[in-house]
Amino acid sequence: EPEVTQTPSHQVTQMGQEVILRCVPISNHLYFYWYRQILGQKVEFLVSFYNNEISEKSEIFDDQFSVERPDGSNFTLKIRSTKLEDSAMYFCASSEESAIRDYGYTFGSGTRLTVV
Amino acid sequence: GQNIDQPTEMTATEGAIVQINCTYQTSGFNGLFWYQQHAGEAPTFLSYNVLDGLEEKGRFSSFLSRSKGYSYLLLKELQMKDSASYLCAVTPPPGDSNYQLIWGAGTKLIIKP
Q: Residue A101 is nearest to which of B40, B48, B89, comparing CB atoms?
């Protein structure tokens, strides 16, 4: 079964450093997303990406964040000047719009980011 | 505004049936997802309801009433592996947002032998 792959599974970084979280969406999917989940809290939407550009972003997704699709397979989330409150599980997801009803959004297994 | 309510925690017995409710008050609505999330893992898709009524998939069924802003997930023949959080999520209508999901806080389901 096709999977969304995320690396690394766990990243520890010092406050103020930059991190890049990587995702390989399912190959025939056209829509890509980043969500985050702070421990014990709700899943929160960050950004969606379609046709090589951001289609929507939330209030959380400020200038500290950026996304990129550097090649035909990878989709990255960059967080600059990390803060303690950026510690969370970051999920990448992808979807093929026509298949939402049957398959929904497919999430990767997540990257647990710990800022110390 | 957007608000999705679910019970925080429920407990049920192995082999029994449990119903997890979700109510939503959103400025618009297109469809409702149910996801299962085991601790420390990604959400996995269970169902997506757009029309009123009950949809059955094996041991799991999901119901939607658009007029009441209400959904439930029904789990039958509970197994220990069903212990997880169950997340209700809403897709706004096209125009409000084409892509993002709005999530409830999830219901932690504990299955006892």
A: B48
DSSP letters along B28-43, please? --SEEEEEEE-TTS--
How many CB atoms neighbour CB B111 within 10 A?
Answer: 20
A38 touches chain B (CB under 8 A): no
Model pLDDT for residues B26-43, shown as the tens digit of each residue: 777 778 999 999 988 889
Residues of B in contact with A21 (CB under 8 A): none
Please identify which residue in the block is written with the tokens 């658009």: B66
pLDDT exceeds 80 at position B2: no
Longest dimension (CA), chain A: 42
Strand partners for A7: A22
The token duo for A102 is: 């049957």
What one-character DSSP code corresponds to residue B55?
Answer: E
> A60-78 burial string, b = 16+ CB within 10 Å, else e?
ebeeebebebeeeeebebe
What average pLDDT does range B83-103 have in this prediction?
Answer: 80
Give residue B14's pLDDT band: very low, low, confident or very high (50, 70, 90): very high
